[in-house]
Write a structure and sequence with these properties.
Layout lengths: L1 E8 L2 E7 L8 H9 L9 E7 L5 E7 L4 E2 L3 H18 L6 E6 L2 E11 L2 E9 L2 E10 L2 E9 L3 E6 L6 H12 L9 E9 L2 E8 L3 E2 L4 H14 L5 E6 L2 E8 L2 E16 L8
Parallel strand pairs: 2-3, 4-6, 11-12, 13-15
Antiparallel strand pairs: 1-2, 1-17, 3-4, 4-5, 6-7, 7-8, 8-17, 9-10, 10-11, 12-13, 13-14, 15-16, 16-17
Length: 274
């Protein structure tokens, strides 16, 4: 049996597997199997993790399609919730800060509050990189987009209104796999409704449509601030809920909640572990 936990942030859900239990296994294949919403456990990705006695953690994220990703803001926050949940289980001394080693560097999350099983964190996401405005032709349309990196690649299209479902499903994958982005990119369609409010739809690299995205919320706020007249403290509204993004001199801060919803075991078939 494989130990598996599940957590979500605004409907963006992740599975958590201890890294030491999958040494020598194909993580791409295992992740696809686990993330299958009909024959697996179901999730937008799998985070292979370790937790140290002092509460620091390490994570490696594999998307639902088996591709690797550098970072997920919501996955990061879900792991921090799992760290605190584990400490409570073991009756370890409480902590109010969690540091996580990711492929995009160390990230620090500060606990703001807890309501029931939901943990609210403010995460220091670092400074955005390579913020630029450019025009890209995809799926027969030419769009003005903001491209950047916030631990992972992002492409944000600022629009007057969110695209209809058919246009979203046409433009999302076309941009995410565009030749401009050799390693693929996360895509957000964003409307600046007010200087302090942005509404988005998300096409996640390696996943497809998601209810929410932490780095996507950060990227959308950055695009709104840099090119859409947004304030430097913005509420970003996704289908799953609202997160707060602050762009300060020392970097981007993301505030939102996460909750652990499942902690148990998965019983694989022999083929799953071959």
């Amino acid at each position: 049996m494989l130990s598996v936990s599940k957590a979500h942030a605004y409907g963006n859900d992740f599975l958590f597997v201890p890294a030491e239990q999958v040494e020598g296994l194909r993580r791409d294949q295992l992740s696809r199997r686990l993330c299958d919403r009909y024959s697996g456990v179901g999730g937008d990705g799998v985070i292979y993790y370790t937790i140290a006695p002092d509460g620091t953690a390490q994570m490696k994220l594999v998307n639902a399609d088996g591709s690797a990703s550098e970072l997920s803001g919501n996955g990061l926050r879900c792991l921090a919730a799992l760290v605190l949940y584990r400490r409570e289980q073991l009756r370890n001394p409480p902590i109010t800060e969690v540091r996580v080693d990711t492929d995009a560097g160390w990230k620090t999350l500060s606990l703001i509050s807890r309501q029931g099983g939901r943990y609210m964190f403010r995460a220091a996401m670092g400074l955005p990189e390579r913020v630029a405005e450019e025009r890209i032709t995809a799926a027969g349309e030419t769009l003005t987009v903001t491209t950047l990196a916030i631990g992972n690649p992002q492409c944000v299209a600022l629009m007057k209104e969110l695209p209809a479902l058919d246009r979203f499903h046409r433009l999302g994958p076309a941009l995410s796999t565009h030749q401009r982005f050799p390693e693929g990119t996360n895509v957000e369609f964003a409307v600046v409704e007010a200087p302090n409010r942005v509404r988005i739809l998300i096409w996640e690299r390696g996943v497809g449509p998601t209810h929410a995205s932490g780095t996507g919320a950060c990227a959308s706020a950055i695009a709104a601030i840099a090119h859409g007249g947004g304030d430097r403290d913005v509420e970003v509204i996704a289908p799953g809920g609202t997160q707060r993004v602050e762009w300060r001199d020392d970097g981007i801060y993301l505030t939102g909640w996460a909750e652990v919803v499942f902690d148990g075991h998965w019983v694989p078939s022999t083929a799953d572990l071959s």
